[in-house]
Amino acid sequence: WLLLQRRLRLRRWVRLGLGPRRRVRVSRARGRRGTATMSLQEKAREKVARMLRFNAAEAPAGGSTQWKLLVLDEQSRDAICPLYSVGGLRKQGVTLHLMLSGAREAIPDVPAIYLCRPSDENIERVAEDCAKSLYTKMHLNFSTRLLRPTMESLARRCLESNSVGAIHTLYDAYLDFVALEPQLFTLNQKETFYGYNSSAGGDAAIEAMMRRTAESLFTVFATLGQVPVIRAPMGGPAQMVAQLLHEALAAHLRGTGGGGGGAGSLFAESGLESYARPLVVIYDRSVDIATPLVHAATYQGIVADVTSYRLNRCACVGTDGRQRTYDLDVEADAFWRQQKGESFPDAIDASGRVLSDVQAREAVLRRQTATGEAPAPAAQAQAPDSNGGGGASLNVLVDSLPELMEKKKLLESHTNIMDICMGVLSSRGIPDFMDMESDIEKYSAQDLIKFFEKGTGLLVDRVRLAAVWLCSGREISREDYDLVLNNLCANPDASDAKADGASGNPRGAIPMDAETARKALSWLRRFMSVGGFSGGMGGAGGGAESAAAEFLGNLLSRGKQMLGSVKKYKTTNLVEAAVQGGSGLGLGMVHLDPKVRGSVPPAQQQAPHEGKVVAFCIGPGCYGEYQNMVDSLGTKITYGCSELASPDDFMRQLDRLGAEM
Fold this sequence. Notes:
By secondary structure, the protein is of the alpha/beta class. 47% of the residues lie in helices and 12% in strands. The chain starts with a helix and ends with a helix.
């Protein structure tokens, strides 16, 4: 027993896969960046690559790759999905990836790499795999810190089945988040707003959720390899998570966290990494409930609203009724990278221009290939022939055409997505909702009732508008609220019955009836009346353009006018104030520094932060909020949230809360 415990402890991954402390090497020839400038997504990908090398510091000499299996739980599968495609995993030697929860057959003579949370259920399945001798060698990687009692439980089970030798290595991987983009991550939790506002679970359930959030945030900064400065509004979930994160980081730095500890383990900072520490600003969704419910204005926001968009994959139903899936990756798709944060009309304009240019270049290349015509001088200059002949001209044609066809294929995918989105915008009258939401503070209850009586959109769209109105910050009397609510419930639109087909979304819009609307808005009304924060909508809008319909043509100019007045969201103002050392929104701010024993000096609290910033929302985040912060803070901001929820997902949580009243 003692030997087994010692063996597991010795194999424990203490340095987070960073290996021995060494200087950062920069290759001028290949432009390799130091770790201080790498994004969270790049560092997560590097960590997974190391795990697939059995945690070897460097790739094997000669480029040889050992074949292996990959066994994942659901959370770890989602974490790897945006980092590696199936082809990318195969290049790393992964012949097969399997789910830990599924039935699996024994595959001898091939090592298996596990990545999962150290939950009781997962530990039990790992022990069963050992007992069944499914794999000759099992390399265990846990996405969060493996606590000693859990490790002892695994050791006890393996001893009982006489299968200790199956576990070859055991590491703490610290990868309990999903890095979707260089500046975007999510903890991939579910129904978090309902979880910490529900009365069903009690205080113990809420505290467990906050601990899970802090634990997952710890893995984010362990992956970055930097100890953050922490700021959060006083009171509520934000302060609780900030304090828990602070305690976990401080305990690790002082060697009392049970994970190897010491200032040099997970956070082996040096040089710029030690000087330019990130600032994390933690807030919870209650600060601004309205933003996730607003009808999106940007290309990415609209895709997330009206299609099934998850883990950078868009699934939608075309006009022919067939379901289609498109990968939208900022690294592989230049158009998506450049246009996802732009207004929908501008993205459509750009798509038309770029596609026309690609088609024109394709026609020229095909003509030159067929006739033997020499390419343009600029093209020849890109690949000069060292022998002075015409071989370079042919090489330019051969190399350019496949690249051009791939670009054309991606643009045609965006054309299909935009067509589907435009159909939804038109059928549900979403631009009319955008128009009202862009200046919601000026509308009275009678204005909303007149708009609702037109029957525009689905009932869920009208309920979302009413929710944004409730959170607008204006004084709303009980009489006005009752007028709006009764009008909504008395006039459900027949189009709601066709939501599945009209939305372009294979999962359909949320089924919304009068009772569901009443429950959701009643809970929101009560929340706002007892101290909830207003949404403070600064403006939103969008539109579309199509030569086939005058409706969409008019939409283009309207959308651009509305988008010209988009303001910062309330949470963006909060983060900016925290960066400048202020409180923001009239809320007191907690200032914590894991490297400082005791209170942070007042001078340090009030000092502006010059380095990178991580804005983290406890609860549902959304692409509109993400883009609003990027527009204001640029490349220095990384946005994270407990979950990336569509407006429909958030409405479901409000409905569940209303049902408990």
